[in-house]
Amino acid sequence: MLRRQKLGAPEHKRDPAAHGGTLSMSHNNTRSFFNFSQLVLSAGHLKSPPVLKHSKITYFEVEILDVQSKKQICIVDKVPPSSTLLDVKHKFHKACPQWYPSRVGLQLERNGPYLKDSVNIQSLAASSIITLYFTDLGQQVGWTTFFLTEYTGPLLIYLLFYIRLSTIYDQVESTKNFRHPVVHLACFCHCLHYIRHLLETLFVHKFSGGHTPLKNMIKGCAFYWGFTSWIAYYINHPRYTPPSFGHRQVSLAALGFLMCEAGNHFINVALAHQNHSGSKACFPSPTYNPFTWLFLLVSCPNYTYEVGSWISFTVMTQTLPVGIFAFLMVIQMSLWAQKKHKLYLKKFYPEVRRKAAMIPIIF
Fold first, then answer.
1. Contacts of 59 (CB under 8 A, 6+ apart)
2. Would the pTM count as exceeding 0.85?
3. What number of other Cβ atoms are within 10 A of residue 307's Cβ?
4. Burial class (CB within 10 angstroms; exposed 0-12, middle 13-18, buried 19+) of 363
5. CA-closest candidate to residue 60, choices 135, 144, 120
6. How far is Cα 183 from Cα 316, in angstroms, rounded to an integer?
7. 304-350 pLDDT tens trace
8. Is 360 helix (H, G, I), strand (E, B) or coil?
C-alpha cells in the first residue's frame, strides 16, 4: 500500500509539469498574435486591389447617301469619335474602290458646302448615326502637278517658236531677216518668269495635300499654253517690228519687269514663311527688304507684282497678243485679290481695313 503511494508520487509530480508546459505554449501564442497585430497596425490599413473600370467607347455609324437619288450607297460602321472625315473617306474607298478619297465629296446637307477632310466626325454627330451625302468630284490631280504642268508648257512652247522651226515659219524669211535684240530679251524674260514659277512651286509654296479637278487643269493649260503660242508667234516672227520708242522703251520696260519679278518672289517667300513659321497667325508685315514694303499699301502684293510684270512685258514687246493677255490677267488677279482681301478682313480686320486689295486707291 505504501509502496503503491511512492510509485504514484512521480506520476502526480509529472502532471503539474505538463500543465505548466501547456500554459507556456499558450502564452507564446498570445505574444506572437500580439506582435502580428502590432505589425499590421503599424503598416496601416490593408488596401484592396484597384477595380479596373472598363470605359465604354461610343462608335458612330456613317450612312452615305447619293446626293441626287438619296439612295444609300453604303454604311461605314465602328467609326471612333476621334476619327476625321478623311478616315471615313478611306473606309468608304475600301467599300467602294472605284471612288478614291480625293474624288469623294461629302456634305452634311444636300445643298451645303463640301466638308473638309480635317473635320472631326464627332462634331458632326447629333446621334450615333451620321448621314452624309456623296458627290463624285471626278478625276483629281494634286496642286503640285497642276502648277508644274501649267507652267512647264509655256516655257517649252515659247522656246519652240524662238528657234523658228521650219514647220512654223518660212525658212527663207527666217534666214534673211535680222532678229532685233528685243526678241532675245523677250525670250529671256519670258523664260525667267516661268522658271521662277516652277522653282517656287517646288521649293517655296507648301501645299497641304489638296486636290483639284482634272478639268480645271485642262482649262488652265488651255489658257496659258494657247496665249503663249499666240504671243510667241508674233514676237519671234521674221517680220516682227521693234517698239516705237526704241532702246529707251525696251530698257525701262525690262527694268520694270525684272523689279516686279524680284518683288513677286520676295513676297511669295514672305507669305510662305508666315504660313509655316508655327507662330500665331497675323497679317504679314514689311521687313527690311524694300520689295515687301508694298504690304503697307495692299493686302495682296504678289498679285500686284504679277500684273506689273505682264504690263512691263507688253510695253517692252509692243504686241497686241501680250496686251490682251495682260488685260485678262489684270481682271483675273483683281478677282482673286478681292476674294483673298475679304478673308483677310475677317481674320486681321484692324491691320487690313485701310489697305487696298491689289492696286492702291483704285481697287
1. 77, 78, 79, 80, 81, 128
2. no
3. 23
4. middle
5. 120
6. 10
7. 999 999 999 999 999 999 999 999 999 999 999 999 989 888 887 77
8. coil
